[in-house]
Specification:
Layout: E1 2-6, H1 14-28, E2 32-37, H2 42-49, E3 54-56, H3 59-63
Parallel strand pairs: 1-2, 2-3
């Protein structure tokens, strides 16, 4: 199953933590999971540490393109 977690907050808060660890757990279970987050945020850095794909959240993604 393909799963995309979206977290548009640049802060390291409970929603960012939950998105990261849910994606990491789903990757371990064999699913394709990624996190859509602001580029350069702490969430993007933590995704790299846990080997979870982090996709940049730009203006096009915010508008739905």
């Amino acid at each position: 199953m393909k799963i995309l977690n979206v977290c548009d907050s640049p802060a390291w808060d409970s929603s960012a933590y939950q998105a990261l660890h849910m994606a990491a757990r789903l990757c371990k279970l064999g699913h394709e999971a990624a996190v859509l987050c602001p580029k350069g945020s702490r969430l993007a850095e933590e995704c790299g540490k846990l080997k979870v794909p982090a996709l940049p959240l730009g203006l096009k993604a915010r508008l739905g393109f």
